User: What shape does this take?
Amino acid sequence: MKKRIVLLVDRHPALLEGIRGLLGTVFDSVIMVSDEASLVGALQRLEPDLVVVDQSFRVAQASDVVTLVKEYSSELKIIALSSYEEPEFMRHCMSSGASGYVLKRSAAKDLIKAVDEVLRGGLFVASEIGPSV
Assistant: This one.
């Protein structure tokens, strides 16, 4: 049986640990990366079931982190974590290929719901932003 793997991408160690704890309840392995080189290496070596990214994670190889991840695998499911509640940030992430958009301040209550929905093939948008994608 294949182990379920999630790749967690963020530059903030405190947030990484908190989110790792949540994701560890759903996945066999939670792989954390905090820089672009590690992200690219993990995308090349691993076959994650899901990637959870900090929406503001800056990359040099693409216009944004969601686009970079999609360049490695167009089928890979992505959930963006964000501090931004403005709908334009959510729309940008979703149009770049994310299947979910979770606010960092609501991650404790929304992230597992988002994971379940996205892995079933659906879309998840933080309720504070609204249902329109």
About this structure: Helices lie at 13-23, 36-45, 65-72, 87-96, 107-119. The domain at 5-125 is CATH 3.40.50.2300 (Rossmann fold). DSSP finds five helices and six strands in the chain. Strands lie at 5-9, 29-33, 50-54, 77-82, 100-103, 124-125.
